[in-house]
Amino acid sequence: MLKILYIFIFLFTLGINLNSVSYAESSISQEDIVSIFKRSMQHWKINYDTLDENKSGAACIPWKKLDKSFINQGVFLALGYGFNLYDINIAKKASLEGCENMRKGLKIKSTCKCEMILYNDDILIEIKE
Protein backbone atom coordinates (compact mmCIF):
# COMPACT_ATOMS: atom_id res chain seq x y z
CA MET A 1 0.00 0.00 0.00
CA LEU A 2 2.87 2.35 0.85
CA LYS A 3 4.50 1.65 -2.53
CA ILE A 4 1.31 2.65 -4.30
CA LEU A 5 1.20 5.89 -2.33
CA TYR A 6 4.83 6.66 -3.26
CA ILE A 7 4.16 5.93 -6.92
CA PHE A 8 1.07 8.16 -6.85
CA ILE A 9 3.02 11.02 -5.23
CA PHE A 10 5.86 10.61 -7.73
CA LEU A 11 3.50 10.68 -10.72
CA PHE A 12 1.62 13.66 -9.29
CA THR A 13 4.80 15.72 -8.80
CA LEU A 14 6.07 14.66 -12.22
CA GLY A 15 2.84 15.96 -13.76
CA ILE A 16 3.21 19.28 -11.95
CA ASN A 17 6.81 19.62 -13.15
CA LEU A 18 5.86 18.86 -16.74
CA ASN A 19 3.09 21.45 -16.64
CA SER A 20 5.40 24.15 -15.29
CA VAL A 21 8.04 23.34 -17.93
CA SER A 22 5.52 23.53 -20.77
CA TYR A 23 4.20 26.82 -19.37
CA ALA A 24 7.72 28.26 -19.22
CA GLU A 25 8.31 27.29 -22.85
CA SER A 26 5.03 28.84 -23.99
CA SER A 27 5.19 32.01 -21.90
CA ILE A 28 6.12 35.22 -23.64
CA SER A 29 8.16 38.16 -22.40
CA GLN A 30 8.08 41.87 -23.12
CA GLU A 31 11.33 41.45 -25.03
CA ASP A 32 9.68 38.80 -27.24
CA ILE A 33 6.88 41.24 -28.12
CA VAL A 34 9.42 43.98 -28.90
CA SER A 35 11.38 41.57 -31.10
CA ILE A 36 8.24 40.56 -33.02
CA PHE A 37 7.27 44.24 -33.39
CA LYS A 38 10.68 45.20 -34.81
CA ARG A 39 10.63 42.18 -37.16
CA SER A 40 7.14 43.24 -38.29
CA MET A 41 8.38 46.77 -38.98
CA GLN A 42 11.30 45.33 -40.97
CA HIS A 43 8.75 43.41 -43.05
CA TRP A 44 7.59 46.83 -44.27
CA LYS A 45 11.23 48.00 -44.71
CA ILE A 46 11.06 50.27 -41.63
CA ASN A 47 13.79 50.08 -39.01
CA TYR A 48 12.31 51.27 -35.72
CA ASP A 49 15.75 51.71 -34.16
CA THR A 50 16.79 54.32 -36.75
CA LEU A 51 13.65 56.46 -36.49
CA ASP A 52 14.14 59.93 -35.03
CA GLU A 53 13.63 60.55 -31.31
CA ASN A 54 10.20 60.72 -29.68
CA LYS A 55 9.21 57.62 -31.60
CA SER A 56 6.53 55.14 -30.68
CA GLY A 57 5.14 51.86 -31.86
CA ALA A 58 1.95 49.88 -31.46
CA ALA A 59 0.83 46.55 -32.84
CA CYS A 60 -2.29 44.44 -33.06
CA ILE A 61 -1.32 41.49 -30.88
CA PRO A 62 -3.06 38.14 -31.39
CA TRP A 63 -2.55 36.96 -27.80
CA LYS A 64 -4.19 33.57 -28.42
CA LYS A 65 -1.81 32.76 -31.29
CA LEU A 66 1.44 33.63 -29.54
CA ASP A 67 3.49 30.45 -29.32
CA LYS A 68 7.17 29.55 -29.84
CA SER A 69 6.76 29.48 -33.61
CA PHE A 70 5.16 32.94 -33.67
CA ILE A 71 7.83 34.30 -31.33
CA ASN A 72 10.57 33.02 -33.63
CA GLN A 73 9.04 33.79 -37.04
CA GLY A 74 5.70 35.58 -36.82
CA VAL A 75 4.84 39.16 -37.65
CA PHE A 76 2.07 41.42 -36.40
CA LEU A 77 -0.25 42.25 -39.29
CA ALA A 78 -1.42 45.67 -38.12
CA LEU A 79 1.11 48.24 -36.91
CA GLY A 80 1.19 51.89 -36.00
CA TYR A 81 4.18 54.09 -35.40
CA GLY A 82 5.31 57.67 -35.25
CA PHE A 83 8.42 59.77 -34.73
CA ASN A 84 9.35 63.39 -34.07
CA LEU A 85 6.31 63.57 -31.82
CA TYR A 86 5.79 66.23 -29.17
CA ASP A 87 5.26 63.96 -26.13
CA ILE A 88 4.29 60.45 -25.08
CA ASN A 89 0.54 61.18 -25.19
CA ILE A 90 0.66 62.30 -28.82
CA ALA A 91 2.98 59.39 -29.60
CA LYS A 92 0.51 56.90 -28.13
CA LYS A 93 -2.39 58.50 -29.99
CA ALA A 94 -0.56 58.43 -33.33
CA SER A 95 0.62 54.84 -32.98
CA LEU A 96 -2.68 53.44 -31.75
CA GLU A 97 -4.69 55.27 -34.43
CA GLY A 98 -2.36 53.95 -37.14
CA CYS A 99 -2.66 50.44 -35.78
CA GLU A 100 -6.46 50.65 -35.51
CA ASN A 101 -6.74 51.94 -39.10
CA MET A 102 -4.60 49.07 -40.39
CA ARG A 103 -6.57 46.60 -38.25
CA LYS A 104 -9.86 47.80 -39.73
CA GLY A 105 -8.45 47.84 -43.25
CA LEU A 106 -7.23 44.26 -42.95
CA LYS A 107 -10.53 43.20 -41.34
CA ILE A 108 -8.81 41.53 -38.39
CA LYS A 109 -10.73 43.31 -35.64
CA SER A 110 -11.74 40.09 -33.91
CA THR A 111 -8.33 38.39 -33.93
CA CYS A 112 -6.12 40.91 -32.17
CA LYS A 113 -6.00 44.07 -30.08
CA CYS A 114 -3.88 47.18 -30.79
CA GLU A 115 -1.58 47.92 -27.89
CA MET A 116 1.36 50.23 -27.27
CA ILE A 117 4.71 48.48 -27.39
CA LEU A 118 7.41 51.14 -27.30
CA TYR A 119 8.03 54.81 -26.68
CA ASN A 120 11.60 55.54 -27.71
CA ASP A 121 13.35 52.56 -26.10
CA ASP A 122 10.96 52.25 -23.14
CA ILE A 123 8.88 49.07 -23.23
CA LEU A 124 5.21 49.87 -22.59
CA ILE A 125 3.56 46.56 -23.39
CA GLU A 126 1.94 44.69 -20.52
CA ILE A 127 2.01 40.92 -20.83
CA LYS A 128 -1.35 39.14 -20.63
CA GLU A 129 -1.24 36.10 -18.33
Poorly predicted sequence stretches spanning 5 or more consecutive residues: 4-8, 13-25
Which structural category do the helix and sheet elements fall into? alpha+beta
**Which word captures the global form?**
globular
Query: Please, how many helices?
Result: 4
Order of helices and strands: HHEHEHEE
Strand portion? 5-15%
Helix proportion of residues, in percent?
Answer: 40-55%
Number of domains: 1
Please give a quick description of this structure:
It contains 4 helices and 4 strands; from the N terminus they run H-H-E-H-E-H-E-E. It is α+β, with helices and mostly antiparallel strands and 129 residues long. The longest helix has 25 residues, at 2-26.
